[in-house]
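Archive entry: two folds, one per protein. Generate the first.
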Amino acid sequence: MTRPPIIALLSLALLSPALAQPPGTGGGGPQARIASKTARFTSVKRTEKRFKDSLEAANLAAATSRKGKTASFHGKVARVFSPQSGRVVILNFHEDYKKAVVAVVQKENFPAFPDLKPLEGKEVLISGEVTLYQERPQVVLRKPDQVWLVE
């Protein structure tokens, strides 16, 4: 068996940085590979009722009290993370994920969403069922109409 020349491999890595990153580091990840090419997030203005009625993502007490209910939260996405398992994508609303609500997209819902990685650094509003994972609140996202870009 012949091996491809090292130059070809380096070129591939430079041209496709997502391929050069190890799994779980966010270089496109499993969700990006099967993301919808047509789905889009809509936007919401800060003056709209939907935004005004939402809670700050850092309000953990309010989030925890809404366990089992639908609630809306807004905040800046600090990190889009996919663990090694590749079974979930997590939107962290704080560099220390324990200090704010997180939003979770399960693998079976990956194809419904556009690539989630570009949400990093953007302010968004999310709405969905609040569940607890390891005693911390998370919002389960099943479809893209649960995410709005804040204008």
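Generate the second and append.
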Amino acid sequence: MNIRRQLYKKYRLEGLSGYKAARQAGYSHATAINAHKNIEKHCDFSQELIKAGLTDDVLSKIAFEGLHANKVISANITYGDADEKTNDFIDVPDWAVRHKYLETILKLQGKLKEKADVEINNYTNIWNGAIGKSNKVDQSGRLINS
């Protein structure tokens, strides 16, 4: 690892943003703007995570707990007669947090991608075949009747 990457890694671990760490390490403005693509993919932070106590076992345990996250909400409980009310707090599943944990886990496992890889030409041909048409699409996406 070259000196600038080592400096970048040091500054990132100190808490600087990707851009600021890159600029302080001596990278150009253009390189620093896309630091996550240009620099960070070449830096290995795994040893630092292990030193900080974030081993794979610990991360797995935290992920498991996140999949069972709850939140506390207030509830007005009414008994038989509408005049008898009690204010109480209850635990309910926090579906938004659970979803975020699941999404992160699937991304780390490579089972969820940021963008769908859909090829328009193949999709159009499959769709047209399903509805009984034999239309095809050219490179620009226009239909060609055959």
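Annotation attached to the second fold: The CA atoms of residues 1 and 111 lie 30 Å apart. Helices lie at 3-13, 18-25, 29-33, 35-38, 46-51, 56-66, 95-108, 120-130.
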